[in-house]
Amino acid sequence: MSNNNYFIDNRICQLLNIKYPIFQAGMIWCSPWNLASEVSNGGGLGIIGAGSMYPNILEEHIEKAQKATEKNFAVNVPLLYPDIEQLMEIIVAKKVKTVITSAGNPKTWTEILKKNGIKVGHVVSSKKFALKAQAAGVDFIVAEGFEAGGHNGRDETTTLCLIPDVCSSVEIPVVAAGGIASGAAMLATMALGADGVQIGSRFVASKESSAHVNFKNAVIQAEEGETKLTLKQLTPVRLIKNDFYNQIIEAEERCASQEELRQLLGRARAKKGMFIGDMKEGELEIGQISSMISEIKPAKDILDEIINDFFNNLKRIGLKD
Description:
Layout: H1 11-16, E1 22-24, H2 33-41, E2 46-49, H3 55-68, E3 73-78, H4 84-93, E4 98-102, H5 110-115, E5 119-124, H6 127-135, E6 140-144, E7 150-151, H7 159-167, E8 174-177, H8 183-191, E9 196-199, H9 201-204, H10 213-221, E10 227-230, E11 237-240, H11 243-253, H12 258-265, H13 269-275, H14 299-316
Parallel strand pairs: 1-9, 2-3, 3-4, 4-5, 5-6, 6-8, 8-9
Antiparallel strand pairs: 7-11, 10-11
Helix pairs in contact: 2-3, 3-4, 8-14, 11-12
């Protein structure tokens, strides 16, 4: 069934001029221009993941996305990125309309971006950091629960607990993330107060994702309990269990130092797993919801499926127009 007759008119859709309050997460090694533009063309907010891109590569992806869609799309920028000044210069010069920052202090860049007419969101994992992000002047918050893939909060607060806590504490729009891959989950988080959702793992297993096919297959083959949050001494990250994961656990169990863990992690470990496709020695970042993903699909089909499921569940529980 087509979702062309559906639309959602709430404050995050109005703020970003999108049809559906669905963000495709800006995932490292998995979120290229064609995935972002396809999601934006489908009515959501596509996001280019700048964390794995050199500045010239990001510029290329922005230019290609702007040619592929007239709709709004965003760029996700980890604030710990070493050449962040170059990334931000490119984003401003290319007139990107929306930026979502993460992994750092939002005060550093929010004012500069907003002075250039850019809407700014920031990813948080707690009420405390949501309040700090609001004080920094961001336009919206992405609140990400413990279930999420990739880097995560140390407090292990689940999405079901995090969203109502954050929504009751801030006045700006809140987008829920972590453990969301269906319209039913989207409806649940919006019932808790969220204005929309950000979905990562489901879009990793899309045809447009730049993840290696080996990684995509690992995602759709993952079963319950096959991911775990680890590396909490450094930066917490949820991983699929493999040989590399086992090495981390062995090191943590014997109380390895942070320096030893950094050496074990090494450089480009995430690229090795998710982009190059080494399923044994690579870092495989994905969310708990991977156990419920069973098929690689085009991004537009995923978006349609989520929207249809959302409205079907509205009808199922009696909340229809």
